[in-house]
Amino acid sequence: MPPSGKPTLRTIAEMTGLAVTTISRALNNAPELSQETRERVQKIAAEIGYLPDRAALRLKTGRTHVISLILDPHDEILGFGQSMVNGLTAALRGTAYHLVITPNFVGDSPLDPIRHIMRNRMADGIIFSRTEPQDPRVKLCLDQNFPFVSHGRTELPVAHPYVDYDNYAFAYAAARRLISKGRRKLTIILPPTKFTFGNHLRAGFLAAVKEGGVAHEIDDGLTLDNAAEDIRTRVIARLAKPGAPDGFICSGDAAALAVMAGITDAGKSIGQDIDVVAKQTSGIFSLVRPKVDAIYEDTALAGEQMGKLLLRRIAGEPAEDLQWLDKPRVEWR
């Protein structure tokens, strides 16, 4: 049984038989310690309710022991923020670090929250999403040697930590699925063209339709960032015209719901007149009827991986060793 009173580093040291300095390094995820030792110490710390004295830690180490997640106000993924936070808190559980949310408001420069964090030394590391090929946030963090992990890749020539989903593979598999169902003209709802993952989606989609010998169209005015009602009305309008697509790929589940509503409101039958393949990130989507084909992206797992990689980056591991790409697991009904 743990001793009574407020748990300290010495409490954990007495329970484990390890030195206080070893306990401190384990709680900070020091890479020189074995994974088994880190996990053992972090598990005991969580069980006895150990909480570090953050003011003392900052004075001693110069670190805040804070991770900042910068959230953009986009909703193409249902429950994106909640899933990401769940994964990050799982990665930080038992360590000296805690998570704070920093919003990136519409209309503001994406650099503003990062500069604010750096200038005021508000965090030891940053996580952000929706990367661009030449992302200015990545460049700033690299220039300042500030630890970060991006949710998404860039096209920069310098290696940097990232966690990403293979959107090329998703779009390719989705298009091949529609072609296998006999669909002859496909379309895909993409994010705005400035984002890297949109380029990956487009490339995977175009490779599949070329290989399958089917027609396609992409409406660059219809993106994941459109309001759901706008997506619905645009789908209705397009289906009323000749040569409309009979296969839709939706790279976000919120957009998929809007597309399905538009198809139904246009008087078409999903599964008969038109088929849909969606990227699913929420358990809610599996309850939608009629059911459509979906490929799952685990954003909670992505959050957990980003938390783990960021702790390793803060500990000094090289960026080229801190890159993780999630491959779609395709299991059609």
From TrEMBL:
| Domain of life, source organism | Bacteria
The residues covered by the HTH lacI-type domain are 7-61
Which SUPFAM superfamilies does this one have? lambda repressor-like DNA-binding domains (SSF47413), Periplasmic binding protein-like I (SSF53822)
Does the keyword Manganese belong to this entry?
A: no
Entries under PROSITE patterns matching the protein: HTH_LACI_2
Q: Which SMART domains match?
A: HTH_LACI
Q: Which keywords are on file for this protein?
A: DNA-binding, Transcription, Transcription regulation
GO MF: DNA-binding transcription factor activity; transcription cis-regulatory region binding
Q: Which PANTHER family match?
A: HTH-TYPE TRANSCRIPTIONAL REGULATOR GALS, LACI-RELATED TRANSCRIPTIONAL REPRESSOR
Recorded protein name is LacI family transcriptional regulator
Q: To which species is this protein native?
A: Paradevosia shaoguanensis
